Amino acid sequence: MRALPLLLLIYPFAEIAALVALAGRIGGFAVFMLVILSSLLGLWMLRNQKLGALLTLGSVLRQGDKVSLYSLLWPLRYALAGLLFLLPGLLSDLAAILLLLPLKGPDIQLRTAGPSPGPAAGPAQNGDIIEGEYHRVDEDTPPGRRLQ
Predict the structure, then answer these.
(1) Is the pTM of this model over 0.70?
(2) Higher-confidence residue: 11 or 114?
């Protein structure tokens, strides 16, 4: 937990160093245009992910009993990737691209049916039948003793 503030302090310097190193190789204008285009891409992704998230969730739930956890979290990954594209820098763009990769994670079991029936709901097995007689007794309870 102590490393998180240190990483938050180092991150901007690492982004600037990566931008300067890339600008030395391909030129400052190209790096500037790369930053502008990635920011526009992130803005576009965040603006157009509202309905897409609902459609993705609906299609994932229609797939069947087993669904990948990563496909359930796809709308969240997509929004986080859009936010990372908005940030200027190469490291954030690389992290956004990694979030957008179609990875298949572990399957989770969806419970599509209702709750499992209890022992009384199923058919009787091996002498589970108890026979007997009953009669109903209705007591007239005075109004002061009733629970309400």
Answers:
(1) no
(2) 11
